[in-house]
Amino acid sequence: MGSNSKYWNHLTGLDAYVKGHDYNNVYPQISDVLGFSENATIDTVGVLGILMKNYCLLDRTLVTGVSKAPWMAKLDTGNVEYFDLPPHMNTKLSDRKISDKFIELMSEEAFDFVKEKKNIGILLSGGMDSRVVAGILRKLEQEDKFCGNITAITWGDVDSRDVIYSQRIAKKFCWEFTHIPITEETLYENISISGIRGAEYSPVHLHAMNEVSKLNSLDGILAGSYGDSIGRGEYSGLKANNLQPILDKHLNHFSFLLKSAQNNALDTLKKDVVAFRDRFPGRNEMSYRELEMQAHYMRRQLNSCMSVINEKIPLYQMFSSPSIVNFIWSLDTQCRSDNIYEEMLNKLPGDLLDIPWSRDGKRYNSKDAIREDDHSRLYHRYGDWLRNENREFVLQQIGNGNLQKLGIFNQRSLDFWSKNWRKDHRPKCDRLDEKMAWLASLSIFVGTYSIEGEKHKFKHTISDDLGLYKSAIYESVYFNAKKILNR
Fold this sequence. Notes:
Elements: E1 17-19, H1 30-34, H2 44-53, E2 66-68, E3 73-76, E4 79-82, H3 95-114, E5 119-123, H4 128-142, E6 149-155, H5 161-172, E7 176-180, H6 184-196, H7 209-212, E8 220-223, H8 227-231, E9 234-235, E10 238-239, H9 259-278, H10 285-310, E11 315-317, H11 322-329, H12 338-347, H13 382-387, H14 391-399, H15 411-420, H16 431-449, H17 462-485
Parallel strand pairs: 5-6, 5-8, 6-7, 8-11
Antiparallel strand pairs: 1-2, 3-4, 9-10
């Protein structure tokens, strides 16, 4: 079942694949499934999900009849046993009481993973989630509950805050420190890795995970990627009580998919979302929206990328245990604030609040704090590398015929954006950059496994020309708005 089958009832679930509804056979990678398949067909619904959200939704893949193992479910002798998730409540507790309980539960969670291991790695950045995990791990050391070796692992530009701050934390705790650079070559490799693994997410989210998976001296790795969403109730900058429904915004801005294919797939995607909500009846709207973010965004983008590591080295996502989710979701959303982390770090060893937060270079959760150094927040230049060093490779993949044979893409849009993709040196990826990188991965996936198009033939109409025209205007407005804001 794989190294994470012990944690079926955790938010991460089982990261594996099934064909049809045959739960007797579970495959760790999609290549294992497709090795036994003939005439694999593209799932346009899965494609639309990525064009809209940058990740597949719920259990879909990009192949018809192949899905992820059901989320929050145990597969035992071919049967599916669904786990329920705790309801969202509105209990109000003080920051002190919340932090005490949180530390207690996280200590139990970490100990359960490390107790029989000798060499542990921790994915450490300059952010707060991994810093809390570091404090918990150090606490277990001081209590002699873990007496093995610890290696702090970070990646990115050597002069970035993430690398510098994580190194300071490792030095405080006398841990080994492993730094993995990220370069244009890393991104080039990740485009292929994403394609071979199913093209279910953009390659820009793989970072140095493939290199981490090669650290064969480790018995296990702890990660804190679920911390923002659980501990502080924040998803990509939005608080849990401000989330929108998962399909609220239609992000197929660049008109890559033919409108007839898009409309057909969107109807099915909406039914998928309704069916998912039906699994958890009687909840309020805020609860459904957070469940959607966990099941779709956290599981299908973040955790799917992390599986690159987990397949080689057991990786555990802290903040995901049933006891922690029960406790945190019992709290009023206003209690899930930055104050909790501040309280926790004041109680955990290492005086880690003395090291600035990589997000702004200032002391965490201090309104009057000033920036303490001039280190960069950027730990990579994915946008620059895509538009320049990797440009030819990306365009070659998009234009080699693999996407065209599927019969679902707007050829004029593929041609237009291949010619009009801006060639500049902005370091960050924008939405078009990320889509171009993913299309290259999709092409590799289609070519590697001989994926075929749907039997239904979608036709190009005037709506597709109009969509391309609108998308060109959108991209220009978006680019110029970002340019003004970044001055």
